[in-house]
Amino acid sequence: MARRPRIEFAGAVYHVFNRGSGRADLFDSAGAAQAFIDCLFEACERMGWRLHAYGLVRNQYHLALETPRGNLVAGVHWLQSAFGNRFNRFRQRRGHAFRGRYRAILVESGVHVARLVDYIHLKPVRAGVVVLDQLAQFRWASYRHFVRGAADRPASLACADWLRALDGLTDTADGWRAYHEHLAWLMADARRQKDAGFERMERGWLHGGDEFRRAMRSDLARMTAARDWGGTELADLNRCEWEQLLEQAARTLKFDFSTIRETPKCAAAKVALAAWLKRRTSVTNRWLTEKLHMGAPDGVSRYTGQLRLGLRPAARELLDRLTAEVGE
Q1: DSSP SS3 for 38
Q2: What is the largest CA-CA distance in the chain?
Q3: pLDDT tens digits, residue range 85-111?
Q4: 268 close to 280: Cβ distance less than 8 angstroms
């Protein structure tokens, strides 16, 4: 039986998680864990995601993820593929890093997201990886970024909404002290964790109240009957965005599309345009190579990777110009 498509729509919030292939320890070294977090924040930047929380333990990752552009599938596919490729190169191995299809459970905004954030932040504590009083120093979870304040926080991390749902907490030093006390209160009694739904966090397809559940079931039935889960419409919108941004960037660089077929596939302007679009959108290599005539799709990744490594200074200069004149 064919797999059912993911439910995607703009502004959806999900609990996204997966485990290592064969339950192998993916994050058993600092290098592997940091590589995943680097890929995660790169995905957030490219996809425009809002990340409410993240956490790693030895063989799994957990995300509280909001998709303002409705691009869950494209984004998680990129995240897992990018990390898997880097992981395999580092370990000099082949095969899938993850065990298979990731889980993505819809979550209602407000208190339900706050409970999910609690679950993710306490995951390493409950697994015995770190004690609660040292969680602020734990490198592989979002908690440390939050408690250290906005100056130490990646732009994609978001906390205002779920903090407010916890008795009106705020993104201040006092607010984070109160949040730490809230986590300590949860950890002090397994019954409180059960009442917060921790046992159900990795089950089902949706977490939310009755009204939210009814609305999502209604939408699910409509989308199933129409064979439209939001993907087709969102894909069209994404392509329109890519077209507009490519035109804008090309004008900035005075790039001439009339001679694009005669221009080398790894020309500095092409590599800069591709890198700039990949940095800020979910654009695919196939679309880029068709629009920019860059050869095989994997060549786009190779050329832009070389740019990141400093091996294409002419393309880097053009990319810096795009960033300065058009923006990230």
Answers
A1: helix
A2: 68
A3: 877 666 556 656 787 789 999 999 999
A4: no
Q: pLDDT (tens digit, 9 = 90+) per residue, 165-210?
A: 999 999 999 999 999 999 999 999 999 999 999 999 999 989 999 9
CATH number of 12-226: 3.30.70.1290
**Main-chain phi, psi angles of 14, to 5 degrees:** -135, 155
Tell me how long the chain is: 328
Rounded to whole angstroms, the Cα distance separating 62 from 129 reads: 15
The structural domains of the chain, with segments of one domain joined by +, span 12-226, 231-325
* H-helix segments, 200-312: 210-226, 231-253, 268-280, 285-292, 297-308
Query: Do residues 105 and 207 make contact, with C-beta atoms less than 8 angstroms apart?
Result: yes
Q: Can you tell me the distance from the alpha carbon of 61 to that of 55, in angstroms, rounded to the nearest whole number? A: 6
121 phi and psi angles, rounded to 5 deg: -65, -30
Alpha-carbon distance of 90 to 87, in angstroms, equals: 5
d(CA 317, CA 320): 5
pTM of structure: 0.76
Alpha carbon of 268 to those of 263, 271, 272, 327: distances in Å? 10, 5, 6, 19
DSSP string, 305-326: HHHHTT--HHHHHHHHHHHHHT
Characterize 8-22 residue by residue with b for buried, 16 or more Cβ atoms within 10 angstroms of its Cβ, and e for exposed.
bbeebbbbbbbbbee
In 3-state terms, what secondary structure has residue 108?
Answer: coil
Going from the first residue of the chain to its last (328 residues), give the mean pLDDT of each consecutive group of 10, the final group possibly shorter: 66 94 78 93 94 95 95 91 76 67 93 98 96 96 95 93 96 97 97 96 92 81 53 62 86 87 90 88 85 88 89 92 83
